[in-house]
Amino acid sequence: MLRFISDLFDPILSYIKDDPVRPEIPLDFRVSESSEVLVLEDNGLLKAIVCVAYRDFVPKNVQELMEKPTTPNIAVFYTIWSYTPGAGRDLIMEARNELPKRRPNINKFVTLSPQTEMARKFHLKNGANIYRANSDSVNYEYA
Question: pTM of whole model > 0.70?
Answer without folding.
Answer: yes
